[in-house]
Amino acid sequence: MAGSAAFKRVAGAVAGFLKQGVTPRKLAAAMAFGVFLGLFPLPGTTTAMCAVFAAVFRLNHAAIQFFNWLVYPVQLLLVVPWFFAGNALFGPAQETLRDAEIRSAMDSGAFNLAGTMGSLTFNAILAWAAVCLVPALLLFFALVPILTRFPRRAPASLPAEPGQSAG
């Protein structure tokens, strides 16, 4: 039940963006960028990144932020795995990957985390880009035809109640 309610809310938001005049292609780009950037390994940076991408690519700010925030719980779950993946894909960094150090740096903010753990952070960002870029592009190309068929207009008005005039 909860899954269908969440799906209905997301579908309602998508319908709302389309009713506002956002083209299916631009909405698909906002959705794909929002999800892609929303999984960035440094929490606290994605809102600004999405705002910049929306401005540069002339995307709907509300749409890109909606999908950025929609994946926020997943982003939090993936922070540490991105660091391990970066370490595995690009070799061990100069710093060692200790759980206590990561937690301490995360508690003091995203920019402190980046500064304290320089090459580990860089490797995590490379791992994120390597893993997420192609699926984000595939998501965009999959969403365009779906959103093109998505209803863009409000449903016809409901018939008047019995005993009331329709005017």
Structural class: mainly alpha
Average pLDDT, all residues: 84
Low-confidence stretches: none
Instruction: Supply the number of helical segments.
Output: 8
Distance between the termini: 39 Å
Kindly state the percentage of residues in helix: over 70%
Task: List SSEs in N-to-C order.
Answer: HHHHHHHH
Query: What overall geometry do the principal axes of the alpha carbons give?
Result: elongated
Largest sheet: none
Strand content: under 5%
Strands, count: 0
- How big is the Rg? 20 Å
Structural features, described:
The model has no long low-confidence stretch (mean pLDDT about 85). With about 170 residues, the protein is an all-alpha fold. The chain is elongated. The protein has 8 helices and no strands. Helix 2 (about 25-40) packs antiparallel against helix 8 (about 120-150). It has helices spanning about 1-20, 25-40, 45-55, 60-70, 70-90, 100-105, 110-115, 120-150.
Secondary-structure map:
Elements: H1 2-19, H2 24-38, H3 46-56, H4 61-70, H5 72-90, H6 99-107, H7 110-116, H8 118-149
Helix pairs in contact: 2-3, 2-4, 2-8, 3-4, 5-8, 6-7, 7-8
Quick structural gist:
With 167 residues, this protein is an all-alpha fold.
Relevant terms:
167 residues, mainly alpha, 0% strand
